[in-house]
């Protein structure tokens, strides 16, 4: 049995989230939370909430034990990109791309 949590349209670039996801992939629930709490990346705030949400889904919806959970799957997909412009020299403008992410975390129970 597995429990899933999805974060959509997070205002952080997918490649910044992927760095942190690689740290917690395959780790158990408690270890993943400890890694996220002690990693100085902005994506960690989003991922702590997401992993706690997936654990709550596992506990309440599927009656799984929190101590036996591990991160079986986690990935990030690019969301919609916000296009902005910044003034540049000689009256021109440069395009600024503000990227968003869709993050998915799946927790499974150890056998």
Description:
- By secondary structure, the protein is an alpha+beta fold.
- The chain has one domain: Ribosomal protein L22/L17 (Ribosomal Protein L22, Chain A), CATH 3.90.470.10.
- Helix content is 36%, strand content 36%.
- It has 3 helices and 5 strands, in the order βαααββββ.
- The protein has helices at residues 14-24, 29-37, 43-62, and strands spanning 2-10, 69-78, 82-87, 93-98, 101-109.
- The chain has a 3-stranded antiparallel sheet with strand order 1-5-2. A two-stranded antiparallel ribbon has the order 3-4.
- Strand 3 and strand 4 form a beta hairpin.
- Helix 2 runs antiparallel to helix 3 (43-62).
- The N and C termini lie close together (10 Å).
- The model has no long low-confidence stretch (mean pLDDT 96).
Per-chain topology:
Blueprint: E1 2-10, H1 14-24, H2 29-37, H3 43-62, E2 69-78, E3 82-87, E4 93-98, E5 101-109
Head-to-tail CA distance between termini: 10 Å
CATH topology: Ribosomal Protein L22, Chain A
Write down the overall geometry: elongated
Q: Largest beta sheet, briefly? A: 3 strands, antiparallel
Helix content: 25-40%
Tell me what the CATH architecture is: Alpha-Beta Complex
Could you tell me the strand content as a percent range?
35-45%
How do the strands line up in the largest sheet? Answer: 1-5-2
List the uncertain runs.
Answer: none
**Overall pLDDT level:** 96
């Amino acid at each position: 049995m597995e429990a899933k949590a999805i974060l959509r349209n997070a205002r952080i670039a997918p490649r910044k989230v992927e760095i942190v996801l690689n740290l917690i992939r395959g780790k158990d629930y408690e270890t993943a939370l400890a890694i996220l709490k002690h990693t100085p990346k902005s994506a960690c705030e989003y991922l702590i909430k997401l992993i706690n949400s997936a654990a709550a889904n596992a506990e309440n919806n599927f009656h799984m034990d929190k101590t036996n959970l591990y991160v079986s799957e986690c990935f990030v997909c690019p969301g919609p990109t916000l296009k902005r412009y910044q003034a540049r020299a000689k009256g021109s403008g440069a395009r600024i791309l503000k990227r968003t992410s869709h993050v998915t975390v799946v927790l499974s129970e150890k056998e």
